[in-house]
Amino acid sequence: MDRCDECLFVYSALDSGALPQRLRDLAGRYPAALREVPDPRRRPAPEVWSPLEYACHVRDVFRVQADRLALALRVDAPEFAPMGRDELVVTERYNAQEPEVVLADLATAADGFAARFAALGETELARTGVYPWPRPETRTLRWLGRHTVHEAEHHLLDIRRAAGAGTAGGA
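Structure (tokenized):
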């Protein structure tokens, strides 16, 4: 995956040096997006997550990606475990969590991942790990950072759709 046809994110268009600030900026956009939704716990359809569930997922993506980054710096070409995204929605009771706590935790997780990413040089950015989704594939840490930005951008679009304000180019 190097381009998302749904939200129009292009991985190669994002410079590695811009990633840390972009991650922090994205986290800062979640409070307004979630506030635009009349009921952040309501699922638009049974198979579609609620806006709160998307915010919880993005918080956990930042956390998991930080762990994957740390592992790839310690171990040559590690195989990253799947995060269990669909299971976490249930086991962590995403829809029962408090939105303000989720948003604070999302900002903290984004900042932590951004700080770790900012410390990487070209040698570290080129390190690889086997990323599990959508199929196992060797990816660089540069790609990991870009993919994390994509996740956060894409799920902002999902939240905005739930608020009735989303457009494909608006994320």
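The radius of gyration is 16 Å. Residues 165-171 have pLDDT under 50 and may be disordered.
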